[in-house]
Amino acid sequence: MRIPEIQTVACLGAGTMGHGIAFLAAKAGYTVRLFGRSQQSLDKGMAGVERAIALYEAHQLMPANQGASLKKRIIPVTSVEEAADGADLILESVAEDLHIKQKTFSIAERHCRPEAVLATNTSGLSLSAIGSALARPEYFLSIHFFSPPYLMSPAEISPIPATLPAIRALSARWVKSLGNVPIELEKEVKGFIVNRIQAACLREALHIVEQGWASAETVDKAVSLTLGRRYSVTGPIESADMGGLDIFNSVLEHICPVLGTRVEAGPLMDKALQSGRLGMKSGNGLYAWPPETISARRAAREQSLIGFMQQDMEDKA
Q1: Cα separations in angstroms, 178 against 86, 181, 239, 297, 308
Q2: pLDDT digits (tens, 9 = 90+) for 239-276
Q3: The pTM is what?
Q4: 3 state DSSP class of 182
Q5: Closest residue by Cα to residue 89 from 14, 32, 17, 29
Q6: How far apart are the first and last CA of the chain?
Q7: Which of 30, 65, 82, 211 makes an SS bond possible with 77, Cβ 3.0 to 4.6 Å?
Q8: Buried b (16+ CB within 10 A) or exposed e, 146-182
């Protein structure tokens, strides 16, 4: 259900994150202006919205008769000025470049309502650096969705020191109004919560493979069948409490000294990048990705995420 303080949302960027957030906002009843740099990018973004609608309808995540009205609430535009005009919430998902984000916000800030929330979807760049270009940094924060936003319910909310408590609270209420789950940080930290933990896990996984202790396939199987399943119910800290802090303290004391500690991605990643192996999108990465495998793995992950969404809906009913 919509919250009265926000009526119009400007989604700046029509890529995976931008069109996914636009879909969620329109589904919740908000008027959305979706900005793309070109008609081609807007067409691609709106095609993504249509795929999200079809997915939701096919799996009974929303009534089958709402797709047409949902699409009508999304207005595609090719200028930041038009997208931001009178908007109550700006949500930026443009390129991960500090200068581009600062320039985008400086334009949007001049055209949105004076009390509008100014939010970025980044979790990698410095929020304070982005906010330094604003005339009203007290209205600025990050609302960081995960990909794809309509199948991943959490959204991390991170303030900068200047962010007003009321803006933090309003942003959390807006995320809830979409049917998503706000994950609120108390203060700014690079990478937020999830990317910091994900980076630590990936660094150690690569380290294990590089040392020849196990293959990439074995590492992935071990994690997905243990931590992947456990953490879907209890996070790492609650899991430690359940298992016994004395036991986990002993594990940390014995293992922490021998964990990988480098401050770069490492040779396995470097070798792949230097040879043009970028992962699924290039057909090869740390795995080989023939087309049939790509389709199968994407479908498997999508079905798993849909299952979580359906379970969440049952729990709320």
Answers
A1: 21, 9, 29, 28, 16
A2: 999 999 999 999 999 999 999 999 999 999 999 999 99
A3: 0.95
A4: strand
A5: 32
A6: 15
A7: 82
A8: bebbbbbbbbbbbbbebbbeebbebbbebbebbbbeb
